[in-house]
Amino acid sequence: GGIIVAVKGQNLRPESVVYFGGTLALEPSYAGPAGIAVKLPPAAVSGSVDVVVKTPGYPDSVLEKGFTYTEMGPPELTGVSPESGPVEGGTVVAISGENLRPETQVYFGSKKAPILSYGGTAGIAVTLPKGDAGEVDVTIKTSGFDDSTLEKAFTYLEAGPPLLTGVTPGNGPVEGGIVVAVTGENFRETSSVWFGDKKAIPK
Asked: Residue 36 CA to chain centroid, in angstroms?
């Protein structure tokens, strides 16, 4: 389970719910009379199951053997994108693989990456943890399975000094209060912006 499944139909209601083989699907997202997105519930065994839409006040609508559960193999890490990032971390990294689970965890070297979203068996988005400059292994860990590692798959880069390259707009009222976009390179979370001797308020 755990993947997002699009259930299509007619005259679906916001209160309609979906069952896979007798198990209620999770986190329904009503997209209108023609569709509902749900999170696939787990199944005890592989095989085909009926998909049922239940709506209060109406007969059940059944698609016999409408979905097939397959036995997944062990999780395998196949790619990391981008392959480099700042030592400060904080950027989004896409982890690609096979048979990834919702509970799969990702490590850069020995640092665990916070999971942003589980995109299904082939992908996970994570936030890059802080690290030291240089190459590190990327590893996925899933309970009940061996770890899968790509050696030296990611490079932490030491950022250069902060560099201011532009200010938009280039003028404004003496009263202040407008929003100004400040662009540059290698800004840090601790960077602050000053107009003359006045510190700007970050937005």
From this structure: 20
Instruction: Give the pTM.
Output: 0.62
Q: Could you give the CA distance from residue 153 to residue 99 in angstroms, rounded to a whole number?
A: 19
- Are the CB atoms for 36 and 12 separated by under 8 Å? yes
Distance CA 35, CA 40 (A): 15
Q: What six digits make up the tokens of 43?
A: 């199944």
- Residue-wise pLDDT for 148-160, tens only, equals 999 999 999 987 8
CA dist., res. 194 & res. 200, Å (int) = 6
Cα separation of 166 and 187, whole Å?
13
Q: Of 193, 202, 137, whose CA–CA distance to 162 is shortest?
A: 193
Classify the C-alpha dihedral 40-108-157-135 as positive or negative: negative
Strands (E), the chain: 4-8, 17-20, 23-24, 26-32, 35-39, 47-54, 61-69, 76-81, 84-86, 92-98, 105-108, 111-113, 115-118, 123-127, 134-141, 148-157, 163-168, 181-185, 194-195, 198-199
Q: What is the dihedral of CA 203, 92, 125, 135, to 10 degrees?
A: -160
**How far is residue 89's CA from residue 55's CA, in Å, rounded to a whole number?**
46
- Tens digits of per-residue pLDDT, 38-97? 999 988 888 999 999 999 999 999 999 999 998 889 999 999 999 999 998 999 999 999
Average pLDDT over residues 93-106: 95
